[in-house]
């Protein structure tokens, strides 16, 4: 007869323990996780747009000796290069000891986050108030954006070739901007339906002091333009050649008495972008070339010059080949893709106790339980997604075993099968033949002005990404 004690052993062997990082880690690792989060918060506060993220990424890479690929004549093992795509995406590589033909290892993440873009003709006056009209970018819940403090980040390109970069609303002494909302007294949800916030309601309040001239029709609007011209040289028509975003002005902050989590704007996906670049810059040169790629436009489908679909990726691989003294043509590149391994480092959803009904709780990620793998994303019936092969997932599980502090949770498909879904850049790399799977950090409030992540998951991802690069 088998004793009860043996079943406990058997359970441990066959099922294992489901414990959070906080339960599994010793004090030393916990301290490392907290210290790592401090660096992350500093990065987040500096990188609130794609363009700002690229600037920060290049700065971090240059500090580690990376050179612009346009400035190098040839490449050999251990060389470090980067390439900027239209100021909004970034590719970095450390050349491996073996030929590029052996394939590369890549972490790819996106540096765009949901926000509000100013429209082409944004400025108007109504009821003696000036506003900017916006067009939301990415999947937002519109009601979350009124009544929060917003900052403007952007670039205005003048027709004389001058480029003006500005940020207003981040310093404590700066003014901020806000989208107004209706008071509850006039928005009763009991007898009449609540007034829904629509895209055209997302208008930023800018000012209320008119210019002093009775003959001018829109006096407050002119006063705003006068301010913009005096301070930045911007005229009304210049908004047509501008990219200005409204983003939450909040700084990244510790959340909770135990400070175990971070609340911030733009965790999706700058959290994985940051962890990926940190792992990339701190790993050792290995046999295969290592790539860290930051792309744009993921939140709106990855189309365009700077998204994951763009051929800039092929151009970068081709440049690496040629500078390494190898032939570069489409069939070579396709063969390389076939031998390459990648991780789409993107965020996922953590089970929120208030909304458990949207999850299959047996296949869901928890906050603090480590880096989360999504074998596939997409929606009902596995539409619009790639799926990592069993062989590739097994390989990654093998890599995890090397460091006992790597804690990982496995799931797929974002919530209940018929509930909803989502996509990432993974499928665009899988379409090219690259082995890829999504592995990132579970969040609360994804796509809200402020999102929440666990410092444990952040650090667990870092430990794993570093091991991944070594192959
Ligand atoms: Mn994302
Ligand atoms: Mn997203």
From TrEMBL:
Transmembrane segments: none annotated. Keywords: Aminopeptidase, Hydrolase, Metal-binding, Metalloprotease, Protease, Zinc. GO terms for cellular component: cytoplasm. Pfam families: Peptidase_M18. GO terms for biological process: proteolysis. Belongs to the peptidase M18 family. InterPro entries: Peptidase_M18, Peptidase_M18_dom2. This is M18 family aminopeptidase. It is an enzyme of class 3 (hydrolase). Its cofactor is Zn(2+). GO terms for molecular function: aminopeptidase activity; metallopeptidase activity; zinc ion binding. Its EC number is 3.4.11.-. The keyword Zinc applies. Coiled coil: none annotated. The keyword Nucleus does not apply.
